[in-house]
Amino acid sequence: MIENTNKKTYVITGATSGIGLAIMEGLAEKEMNLIGIGRSPELCKRRQELFRGKYPQGKMKYIVADLSLQPEVRNAAVLIGETLNGWKLKTLDGLVNNAGTFTFWQTLTPEGFETQWAVNHLAPFLLTHLLLPWLKKSSNARVIAISSGSHYGAKLDWSNIQQLGRYNPLKAYKQSKLANVLFTAELNRRLGSDSSIQGAAADPGLVNTEIGGKSQSRLAKRIWDHRRRKGIPPAQSAAGIIKLLVEVDLKAQSAVYWKDGIPKIPDPFALNEDYGRRLWEISAQMTGVSLQKDS
Ligand SMILES: NC(=O)c1ccc[n+]([C@@H]2O[C@H](COP(=O)([O-])OP(=O)(O)OC[C@H]3O[C@@H](n4cnc5c(N)ncnc54)[C@H](OP(=O)(O)O)[C@@H]3O)[C@@H](O)[C@H]2O)c1
Q1: Distance from the CA of 56 to the CA of which of 41, 176, 195, 273 falls in 20 to 30 A?
Q2: pLDDT band, very low/low/confident/very high, at 1 (cuts 50, 70, 90)
Q3: Which domains does the chain have, with CATH numbers?
């Protein structure tokens, strides 16, 4: 067998099902080194066995972390570092912040954050920050946020960004997906145009996954069951995201938002620099981290 000399190393969150699992599969086929993150120990074990059996040539590991909990995000970053050291690798070439959730009823994490805000926005913000030292060692690293077309028309409610006390599940989901694009644009601004790291927010399209079926509400499950039938297969959606990781020259483009590997104009709210700065400051305070332009 000819060894893939262009092997790169990627971390994918939410790698146990849906789009994240399909991204893992697509990258495994390209013989990339892969670290998947999932919240279920049982699913992580099963997926790891599956990949190791099917793609014995690649380095691959699953790490268990409930990304709604910041201590687990921090621990995942430590385990990623240990894994890379164990593999004798010095760089990380990409992080795909894919894990996402839709919670019908308002639930708070033990740290007091609204769950969708914690998983869909704060975890990517924190994990990206923690992995920057690894990403910076790559000559061409990518940080991909899996956002959604549902961010169009959404606004962040600055007076109550988590909608505490007056929760609307769909609005909370859309806000978190808008935050994905705002965060990506602000990350690129803070890293600067000469950075070796490029951020991109991807719209995966409507995809036939279980995401809405994991909600606690029977009504939400029924609506999603109906809607998902119109969705594309996860592998088709993953192909566009894999393009952003391995094919598209992100440095040559100023675009922040992408669909099917093609730039798309996001909602203007997502490109507003004041809003980007404001979200960054709030998120830094909520996670206890910061990224100045030159750090
Ligand atoms: N499906 C769509 O039509 C669609 C459209 C636009 C955007 N998106 C976005 O695409 C991304 C992937 O969604 P999907 O449709 O593939 O959904 P999915 O099949 O439910 O996959 C979501 C992944 O995130 C993981 N996850 C959820 N909560 C987590 C937590 N607290 N800690 C760690 N991992 C957690 C899930 O783990 P388990 O396997 O244990 O559940 C799963 O691996 C999400 O960010 C979603 O917002 C999806």
Answers
A1: 41
A2: very low
A3: 9-286 (3.40.50.720)
